[in-house]
């Protein structure tokens, strides 16, 4: 039985909170002590370009995976929304933890909601998913790039660079910054991305003992919802260069999956939306639900919205 490990983590305040949260759960629930190995990833270093132009969200995990492969760490803690849909050979997601609030948050020092923003207001976001959905709500807005960790983004807002910014509610709540939120986008208004609000624990595929231990931390409703969401993205070749949203929620014993796709270049094009629902008892059924939603998006013309 593994009793002592090292956790690889990014060094942002939010990433360290997430790693420390897992560290505490390992100790309290599994009797495993863990040290933290802080690392700076390429995604953290390159802030002058959008992720879609420099290689995608996988830039946040590659250095951590190298630490796993080299034996410098045994576990990497990720925001699941940053984890590529296909992991490199030799790595697995051993657990998905219970999801925090999956919604997007509207943050502004001067305005209470998107509806109150003046015409032509500047809103900060580098997420193509958020860009297309914001423009669907308010085509007159100017959505400008916004990169950096959570504190950096809030500082850029406070310095007057934007009328408002859009951030994941989960990160703000985890860092005790919910007071910065002026309002939450309900999921029917702005659909989250796959895995938003959930934490994923990645290990080497051959670390069977650790996998068995971490299985006790799996939150099955979150895992199945995220499996369905990630399957939509996987079916459409999803990456951060694709303005794709997918969010699943449990309703009356069934899993309802909503997906929305914006045009990869013409960001003001109408969003394509699809819904699928079914009783889901295992990961295979969850993935099938995701593939069903992706097929419906293709029937609506997703092919013309995807990169050539």
Evaluate the radius of gyration: 19 Å
Helix/strand class: alpha/beta
Helix count, per DSSP? 10
Strand content: 15-25%
| SSE order, one letter for each helix or strand | EHEHHHEEEEHEHEHEEHHEEEH
Through-space gap between termini: 49 Å
Overall form: globular
User: Reading side by side through the largest sheet, how are the strands ordered?
Assistant: 2-1-3-10-4
SS elements, strand count? 13
Largest sheet: 5 strands, mixed
Unreliable stretches = 47-55
The percent range for helix content is 25-40%
Describe the protein's architecture and organization.
There is one protein chain. With 308 residues, the protein is of the alpha/beta class. It is built from ten helices and 13 strands. Strand 11 (244-251) and strand 12 form a beta hairpin. The N and C termini lie far apart (49 Å).
Comma- or semicolon-separated keywords:
alpha/beta, 308 residues, five-stranded mixed β-sheet, single chain
Summarize the structure.
The protein has ten helices and 13 strands. It is of the alpha/beta class and 308 residues long.
